Amino acid sequence: MIAETVCSAVSAAGLGIAVVTAYRRRFLSAARIAAYALVPVGLVMTGIVGWLADTAFSPTAWAGFGVLAAAWLLFAGTRAVERRRAGAGPERGAASDTGRTRPGTTAPTSSAPALGQGQGKRPTSGDDFSDIEAILKKHGI
């Protein structure tokens, strides 16, 4: 009952401000203020304000918020533990090895990084990039 009265008073004050603004020939601002002023009355008429007031003073609703908070903490905690285990690597055992590689490592069958090693040499492992070089030269790169 009090919430509905407060919302009605806020709407009446907002409409009064809109009238004063329209009197000053600022019609666009007056229409915007009137729109904002009508929102609290609309919320009261739809019953949302009553539902919120009932929820705010309901012990069952607050217990429900507590249960939701506990569920969120469980999700966050398990996610943190999962991330910590994933970063442990293969020394943890075969159970944590899911085929993922850690950042900064190379696959077991890959060659050593090419930057800084053999800078003027052509690859000897059968990797011929002449077709790629031709395409790049064609485009002026």
List segments where confidence is low: pLDDT < 50 over at least 5 consecutive residues: none
Instruction: Count the E strands.
Output: 0
Distance between the termini: 75 Å
Shape: flat
Order of helices and strands: HHHHH
Strand content: under 5%
Gyration radius, to the nearest Å? 34 Å
Q: The biggest beta sheet, please?
A: none
Instruction: Specify the structural class.
Output: mainly alpha
Q: Kindly state the mean pLDDT as a whole number?
A: 80
* Tally of helical runs: 5
The helix fraction, in percent, is 55-70%
In brief, what are we looking at here?
With 141 residues, the protein is mainly alpha-helical. It contains 5 helices and no strands. The chain has helices at residues 2-23, 27-46, 48-56, 59-86, 130-138.
Write a structural description:
With 141 residues, the protein is an all-alpha fold. Helices cover 62% and strands 0% of the residues. It is built from five helices and no strands. The longest helix is centred in the middle third of the chain and has 28 residues. The N and C termini lie far apart (75 Å).
